[in-house]
């Protein structure tokens, strides 16, 4: 039988220690959750092929092979992973589903500014009635 750590064992995921942890968020930026994930990776027998796969796929999300996206980005060398918007940015919250405190705050202030500008616009340009006059006249 092929050793599960063999780099080209395409079935390595069958031996993944995270397989029975479906409730853990492997994309979380919360330090406590990240530490839990990393502890599972430390004892995983397919850490090497898992990390290699993430780098070869240029996957910018979550923990793979006990490595964060930043660590993989460094290992990827010149061919960087996709650049993510910084934390605290509304697009990191909306498009990339980050729910860290900074992204929540960034999203809240974006929404606040958007609503304020919409209501100011409404004050300046009152809505025109859909029907001008009485259609039965
Ligand atoms: S190294 Fe971590 S992410 Fe990769 S298969 Fe093992 S437990 Fe899952
Ligand atoms: Zn964030």
Automatic annotation (TrEMBL):
<dbReference type="InterPro" id="IPR034768">
    <property type="entry name" value="4FE4S_WBL"/>
</dbReference>
<keyword id="KW-0004">4Fe-4S</keyword>
<dbReference type="GO" id="GO:0046872">
    <property type="term" value="F:metal ion binding"/>
</dbReference>
<keyword id="KW-0238">DNA-binding</keyword>
<dbReference type="GO" id="GO:0051539">
    <property type="term" value="F:4 iron, 4 sulfur cluster binding"/>
</dbReference>
<feature type="domain" description="4Fe-4S Wbl-type">
    <location>
        <begin position="17"/>
        <end position="74"/>
    </location>
</feature>
<keyword id="KW-0805">Transcription regulation</keyword>
<dbReference type="Pfam" id="PF02467">
    <property type="entry name" value="Whib"/>
</dbReference>
<dbReference type="GO" id="GO:0047134">
    <property type="term" value="F:protein-disulfide reductase [NAD(P)H] activity"/>
</dbReference>
<feature type="region of interest" description="Disordered">
    <location>
        <begin position="111"/>
        <end position="137"/>
    </location>
</feature>
<dbReference type="GO" id="GO:0005737">
    <property type="term" value="C:cytoplasm"/>
</dbReference>
<comment type="similarity">
    <text>Belongs to the WhiB family.</text>
</comment>
<dbReference type="GO" id="GO:0045454">
    <property type="term" value="P:cell redox homeostasis"/>
</dbReference>
<protein>
    <recommendedName>
        <fullName>4Fe-4S Wbl-type domain-containing protein</fullName>
    </recommendedName>
</protein>
<keyword id="KW-0804">Transcription</keyword>
<keyword id="KW-0411">Iron-sulfur</keyword>
<dbReference type="GO" id="GO:0045892">
    <property type="term" value="P:negative regulation of DNA-templated transcription"/>
</dbReference>
<dbReference type="InterPro" id="IPR003482">
    <property type="entry name" value="Whib"/>
</dbReference>
<keyword id="KW-0408">Iron</keyword>
<dbReference type="GO" id="GO:0003677">
    <property type="term" value="F:DNA binding"/>
</dbReference>
<keyword id="KW-0479">Metal-binding</keyword>
<keyword id="KW-1015">Disulfide bond</keyword>
